[in-house]
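Consider one such protein record:
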Amino acid sequence: MIRRIAIAAILLAGGVLRASPLPNRHSLDDAGPGRGPALLAAAIARPHVVIPPAASQVLIRRDTTYSQTVIILGGSAAVEGTVTGDVIVVGGDLYLRPRANVSGRAVAIGGAVYESTMSTVGGGVLPFRDFTYDFTEIPGGYALTYRSLVDKPTSALSWPIFYGFRIPSYDRSNGLSIPFGPVLAVPHTEILIEPRVTYRSQLGQVDGFIAAGMTLDSRTAIRTSFGRATFTNEKWIRTIS
């Protein structure tokens, strides 16, 4: 399902793009799952300013004040001035420089937030690195399409981590457990199949395991698994951090 956000915007003199919250100028079909997309959708529904994609890093200068949320598209941004509301960067990093004053939240979608000890952020810092939005220009603004940044297999057969060897683990019952197996992606579907074998050094045995999963939509997935493993109650001796 195509996930789109259409952002209405009016280009003013001086090359600064400001978006007015006009009725029926914004549409949101499915922004994607989770807190980040919900935060962006809520910001679009309220009064805000949109700064369009630029060839270089966007800079909100020290002598600049915005009285509402600022949404910056398609690249990194640095804030030196004052924003009464949120600052949301879509598709880049957000840098808060000394004396920056943001009354709301500092949000980076598809990037990171870098704070300064001399900056002020009233609502906290929220980086969302596992997804972003692709955008295309449409009459009056931009259309944003949700895109996950979580790695997915690019071929029907792949060997993750190190040629199929997964991260080993150790416990007193099994000794060293070394899992190995490929990932099978069923063509033209969202189905992934993961057959796996795990060698247990303490037991001198190899355990078989298979898992299958399918993504139904942006919010729903099904996963099932079957295999042999050793279960122990020794977790009580482990430190919980």
